[in-house]
Amino acid sequence: MIHISLPATGEEEWQATREPLMSGWVTQGPKVAAFEKAFAERHQVPHALATTSCTTGLHLILAGMGIGPGDEVIVPAFTWVATANVVLYCGATPVLADVDRDTYNIDPADLARKVTERTRAVIVVHLFGLCADMDAIRAVLPAGVKIIEDAACAAGAAYKGAPAGTLGDAAAFSFHPRKSVTTGEGGMVTTTDADLAARMDMLRNHGASVSEEQRHKGPRPYLLPEFNLLGFNYRMTDLQGAVGLVQLGKLDRFIAERQKLAERYRDGLQRLGWLRMPEFGNGEHAWQAFVTYVDPDSAPMPRNDIMEKLQQAGIATRPGTHAVHMLGLYRDRLGCSDDDFPGARDCDSNTMAIPLHNRMTVEDVDYVIDTIRSL
């Protein structure tokens, strides 16, 4: 089976875990701090804080910004459900905006239509590693509306030379195994706002005034810290931090390898009239996934039947992601119908991710190409 994704981990990552395991410091500590520092430098931001996932990172950002009941946060209608869920975690109201069928990212025109006096923020998703159209997004937002980047797929991506994570007020990244950099599970938040970073630092550690490492290495380690905020346990372990450091050092190579595989897919499949290739993003795409669009009017069979044929041929595929408004929770809560967001609806029905990861060979890619062309 050619898997949809596989983590590019090996002996170096295994060896990296030995130091925290042998040191006795396995929770958030020096390895996490080193990972945060390296990540901040790589993404050109002053503050980076490791978390347990991108989901908890987004929650930290919203909580750190004080977003809550009565506030609205705009999110794209085609995204992983967590993007909308974190708004509900804060007691705020998620407002959906449609997406562009070509880029799969939020449509700035529909975003503009969804802004109200209650809008506090927009969560901009850089879906599958392609940064959203930030110039157009900024142009339609009133002053004071925060821009939060859901950069789950976008480690190493850029927009007009500016790294993902520097394009808004704060950003959250994912280190899930389907991402280029993985720590098993895990995430990172970045911001240029020192006050926001300080609040998020406390919130991820139960609202404690100092971290466990700071307390244990301080002059009075026997005393508990102050707790002045209602916080969470969103701390990354030092085992994950050690793995993350190794993975981050390989990020540029990972993206370059994925870019070459993506180009080979494009060259082999772009002449198929029924299968649209993803946008390539002027070389700034991070290629977390290679997501095609099956034209329902000209394809040889429905998208799901194509996926079944590929599965039988030993090729794993997935829908790109899902339309949030078509999920039961949000259909009921927001009173949506499928046709309310036609771009998201069509992407939900017609996108197809094909295998892309750093353990693939050129022969694997050619087999996928040949199999799709034979349909």
From TrEMBL:
Q: Tell me the superkingdom of the source.
A: Bacteria
Q: Name one GO molecular function term.
A: transaminase activity
Residue numbers annotated as active site: K179
Any single biological process term in GO: polysaccharide biosynthetic process
**Residues making up the signal peptide according to the UniProt record:** none
Keyword Transferase applies? yes
N6-(pyridoxal phosphate)lysine-modified residues are where?
A: K179
Pfam families given in the database record: DegT_DnrJ_EryC1 (PF01041)
UniProt KW keywords: Aminotransferase, Pyridoxal phosphate, Transferase
InterPro entries (alphabetical)? DegT/StrS_aminotransferase, PyrdxlP-dep_Trfase, PyrdxlP-dep_Trfase_major, PyrdxlP-dep_Trfase_small
Give yes or no: UniProt keyword Ion transport: no
The record's family statement is: Belongs to the DegT/DnrJ/EryC1 family.
Give the protein's recorded name.
DegT/DnrJ/EryC1/StrS family aminotransferase
- Species whose genome carries this gene: Sphingomonas sinipercae
